[in-house]
Specification:
By secondary structure, this protein is α/β, with parallel strands linked by helices. It contains 28 helices and 40 strands. Strands 1-2-3-4-5-6-8-7 form an 8-stranded mixed β-sheet, with helices on both faces. A 7-stranded mixed β-sheet has the order 11-12-10-9-13-14-15, sandwiched between helices. It has a 7-stranded mixed β-sheet with strand order 17-16-19-18-20-21-22, sandwiched between helices. Strand 11 and strand 12 form a beta hairpin. About 45% of the residues are buried.
Length: about 1000
């Protein structure tokens, strides 16, 4: 690296890994004096045309002077960056600071000329766009605000790179050259372009892992058993549509096949491209495998091998090196310590996992950081013929293991526009980048449901994750604000996911309840009330109800405009058998079919074989006898054929896991002719014809799932009209900025005094009631005369502040006599004035005491919080949260989100308070924090909200240099 005394220190923080347009990766880093040979080699591989476009003349080779110029930088006025793959340059970009005369200059000149050169073999991969983002960020860091570029008119590709970036720009034409000038300050359009490119690149990188044209399993044992041999068999047995190879360096040279699959001793011996490598070798042998894969052009790795960050410090370093090694070759990694990936698409049929059976195809995407949880979810979603969790199909499945590289964010980018996925289920042990996840979740949830279980675990070891200071509950609340359906357990994850996968979103919270059990109906009614739904009076059909009675009652309920969803409660009729169960299922199907816009759920109590009848593999109709024409051998969920028995009898062969008592099936609403399991339609095909009615073994589970879906549907409706951030004419943004800049000259982290706090808040229209110090009784009397009676006397010592319950506050003091008496009582009770720090404040109108807080979290961003002051927020944690900037609709919902909100709206006959004034206060504080990220924390407490107006009686503000915002910088992968 450069060490000469006239150079600045090498800026290592400019190094970054990026995902390119085609899903591959490249490393961007500063160019140094050590890169002379790489630069020459790179230039030799550039076509004459590209050289001409770069230098405006034939330029076959670089002179020694050119090489010196392009490799010697001061990292301030002259900067060069290179994109590398495998350690070799594939593209370069540089800027040179210039003055108003266009000649080389130094600061304070704030303009620079920029120029690119991309190797022809890598043009069209989005390399120049990524380099522009990074060189732009570097330039802003060095005080450069504007780029200028001169481009030949025929160089359309480079002109497009600049014009598509989204910056504000000017274009001119002179002397046969197009001159482009553009500001580097991010704009809404430039950020939108950046996010769109990020989505396409990261989605493509995951697609390459999930839809490979060829797969090599590396580490296939010569004897049966073992991880590699098992995965090879799983891929083969699933019917993978691409080319499959087995790799084991210990294979005899004469062995060319293993389990019917072409076998090789090294991936380098495969005479064809390999898109995906599944690595199942001991951790110490993985580096050699990565090198061989990288040199062969493998696009991605699924690393099943263990022995990494989960094993301790040595494993953490091994994991970091694995990621660095793979990214150097442009490869992405799922894992290590992964369970694998699955794609059930008929065009792919990939089961590159340890799951011995391919899940049934469907339209649900599944992500799990934990292999054990992934196994549990797959087994539950895969069960048919009954089961504790019901039936659905999977589109794609990713178990990320240690999540060293590919994370939930990447997979979410893929599912966002995946046409084969309608519902996303995710188990997350941690959220490494809450700000980005929230942004992606909000966009995804607007298009398709996203259900998340978030564990309370720490971030995967070895992964560079910025820690959040926010409590777990706050992060969960922010996820809900972003449209995430946040549930607490795996059971709730599946319950909610099944309802979303097979039923429409409800139009509201009004729920009709009908069934043949009065008790079960009442339980469902109570559960609806507990979950905040609006249940209608249950309709009891009595235990003698026939399928026709259910049909008529359900049809009436669905036709009722006062109903948004229907819960059917059912207990099977004794002695009805499977034919009766099938008739009930058909009755419900036929009743719901004419009204496809309202969801229907079933709560059932199972007797005997009800689950088998209601969730028959392909039909709710009675199965034909084995002797009847067209009768096949029904298969269980594992694909094992069973013998057909007499009508209504249990199968004599193996039963699927979880079937039997307590199972929760689906009502299958389509009724195609029975057929062998091998020809059974997958869930995605069934969905095109009709839908399934999910059934639950308990009212609480059904209603909880329904309540989550109701809230999500409301969020979707609200998201369609998100509101706006109001403009207030009395806000002095410039004055606040000048005040903040002046205050920060006194220190990096600064808690403002009372006068400074009041002045800063006043710039945004937030007026704080004056509180005058009262170190003596005479000072207190003087303060009261200045403010005017009645007044309040408060102790502001930390242990007494905001603690009226301890007696540190005296209110409604009407005259000096009462004030002096109260002063004496406080000092007698709590100590000297020096210990109490008493202040005098004019009495505010009576109302409800609230607290408003804003904080900038380094991971999640700026967060605005609201609650009632005192025990409600401090003891019960009854606070609501929104991400800044807050819109008018969000401010309104924020104050209504706390459990104690009724106290603001006239609870038990009290006078409602001025909530519009409270909403305005929230919006003004939100604007302050959003406009000035140096305000890293602000608290208004108490804020007394009266029937007319409000009073801010206490405030504190902390200033500091704002945390770096990854979402405003160039695209990068998490660092190692």
């Amino acid at each position: 690296m450069q060490t000469s005394p006239d150079r600045h220190e090498y800026p290592a923080h400019w190094e970054a890994d990026v995902v390119l347009r085609d899903g591959g990766t490249a490393r961007i880093r500063p160019i140094t004096v050590d890169d002379a040979d790489r630069l020459v080699s790179f230039y030799e591989q550039v076509s004459d045309e590209s050289k001409y476009y770069r230098f405006f003349a034939p330029y076959p080779r670089l002179s020694a002077k050119d090489v010196h110029r392009f490799t010697h930088h001061d990292f301030v006025d002259r900067v060069g960056l290179a994109a590398t793959i495998g350690g070799e340059f594939i593209a370069t970009v540089r800027y040179d600071r210039i003055g108003a005369d266009g000649m080389p200059a130094s600061a304070p000149a704030d303009e620079a000329e920029v120029a690119f050169l991309v190797q022809d073999a890598h043009q069209g991969r989005g390399v120049a766009s990524a380099l522009l983002e990074h060189i732009g960020a570097v330039a802003r860091e060095r005080g450069i605000r504007r780029f200028a570029a001169e481009v030949l008119p025929a160089n359309n590709k480079m002109i497009k790179v600049f014009t598509d970036a989204g910056y504000t720009q000017k274009r001119s034409f002179e002397d046969g050259v197009v001159r482009l000038e553009f500001d580097l300050e991010p704009t809404d359009r430039s950020l939108a372009v950046q996010y769109a490119r990020e989505q396409r690149a990261e989605a493509r990188s995951v697609q390459r892992l999930l839809s490979p044209g060829s797969v090599a399993v590396i580490g296939v044992g010569r004897s049966p058993g073992g991880v590699g041999r098992s995965v090879l068999g799983n891929i083969r047995d699933a019917g993978f549509t691409g080319r499959l190879y087995a790799v084991n360096p210990a294979l005899p040279e004469e062995q060319k096949e293993l389990d019917g699959v072409p076998a090789y001793r090294s991936v380098r011996d495969i005479g064809a491209p390999v898109d995906l490598a599944v690595v199942a070798v001991p951790a110490e042998r993985v580096p050699r495998v990565v090198t061989e894969c990288g040199r062969h052009g493998v696009q991605g790795l699924v690393v099943l091998s263990a022995g990494y960050a989960e094993s301790g410090p040595e494993g953490r370093e091994r994991q970091r090196e694995l990621v660095r090694h793979a990214r150097a070759y442009g490869m992405r990694i799922i894992g290590p310590n992964a369970f694998g990936v699955i794609n059930t698409s008929a065009d792919v049929r990939l089961n590159a996992s340890l799951a011995p059976e391919m899940p049934r195809p469907g339209r649900t995407g599944l992500f799990s950081q934990s292999g054990a949880i992934g196994i549990a979810l797959l087994s539950r979603l895969h069960r048919r013929g009954g089961g504790v969790t019901g039936v659905t199909g999977v589109s794609t499945f990713v178990s990320a293991g240690n999540r060293a590289d590919v994370s939930g964010n990447d997979v979410l980018q893929y599912w966002y526009d995946d046409p084969d996925t309608d519902v996303v289920l995710m188990y997350l042990e941690s959220i490494g980048n809450p700000r980005k996840f929230t942004r992606l979740a909000r966009r995804t949830a607007a298009a398709k449901p996203l259900v998340v279980v978030q564990g309370a675990g720490s971030a995967p070891q070895g992964h560079a994750v910025r820690a959040t200071r926010l409590p777990h509950a706050t992060v969960s609340a922010l996820l809900r604000q972003a449209g995430v359906i946040r549930v607490e357990t795996i059971t709730e994850l599946v319950d909610t996911g099944l309802l979303l996968a097979r039923q429409p979103l409800p139009g509201g919270a009004r729920v009709a309840i009908l069934g043949n059990s009065e008790s079960l109906g009442l339980l469902t009614y109570d559960a609806c009330l507990s979950e905040g739904l609006r249940p209608l009076r249950p309709l009891d059909l009595t235990t003698g109800a026939s399928p026709e009675d259910f049909h008529e009652a359900l049809a009436r309920a669905l036709a009722d405009d006062a109903c948004d969803a229907v819960v059917v409660t059912a207990i099977p009729a004794v002695g009805s058998g499977m034919a009766g169960d099938a008739a009930l299922a058909e009755a419900l199907r036929s009743a719901s079919e004419p009204v496809p816009g309202k969801p229907v759920l079933v709560v059932h109590v199972e007797f005997g074989g009800l689950a088998e009848a209601l969730s028959a593999a392909t039909s709710t109709a009675p199965q034909p006898r084995a002797s009847e024409p067209g009768a096949g051998s029904p298969a269980d969920s594992s694909g094992t054929a069973t013998k057909a028995g007499p009508p209504g009898s249990r199968p004599s062969g193996p039963r699927p896991p979880g079937s039997g008592a307590g199972a929760r099936p689906f009502f299958r609403l389509d009724a195609p002719a029975p057929q062998p399991a091998a020809d059974a339609p997958d869930d995605s095909a069934v969905e095109n014809r009709s839908r399934l009615i999910p059934a639950y073994p308990a009212a609480e589970r059904a209603v909880r799932a329904l309540s989550e879906v109701v809230r999500y549907a409301q969020w979707r409706r609200d998201a369609a009209e998100p509101g706006k951030v109001p403009e207030y004419e009395d806000i002095d943004e410039k004055g606040a900025a000048e005040l903040i800049d002046g205050l920060l000259t006194r220190g990096q982290g600064l808690t403002l005094g009372t006068d400074e706090t009041c002045e800063l808040l006043g710039k945004y229209g937030v007026q704080v009631h004056r509180a005058l110090p009262a170190p003596t009784p005479d000072a207190a009397a003087e303060a009261a005369r200045t403010l005017g009676y009645p007044v309040a006397l408060k102790a502001t010592a930390p242990h007494l502040r905001h603690r009226a319950d301890l007696g540190g506050v005296r209110l409604d003091l009407a005259d000096e006599e009462q004030l002096r008496r109260a002063y004496g009582e406080l000092t007698d009770l709590f100590g000297t004035p020096e210990e109490l720090r008493p202040v005098v404040q004019r009495m505010a109108p009576r109302g409800v005491d609230t607290v408003v807080r804003a904080v900038i979290d380094p991971a999640a961003g700026a967060v605005l919080s609201f609650g009632l002051a005192g025990a409600a927020s401090q003891l019960l944690g009854d606070m609501a949260h929104r991400l800044v900037p807050v819109t008018d609709r969000e401010a309104s919902s924020l104050i209504r989100s706390i459990r104690t909100a009724p106290l603001l709206f006239g609870w038990r006959g009290s006078t409602p308070v001025d909530t519009p004034a409270l909403e305005e206060l929230l919006l003004r504080l939100s604007r302050l924090v959003d406009d000035h990220p140096e305000v890293v924390a602000a608290t208004l407490e108490p804020v007394v909200v009266a029937p007319r107006g409000l009073s801010v009686l206490g405030a504190s503000v902390r200033l500091a240099p704002p945390p770096a915002r990854d979402d405003l910088g160039p695209r990068t992968l998490p660092a190692y």
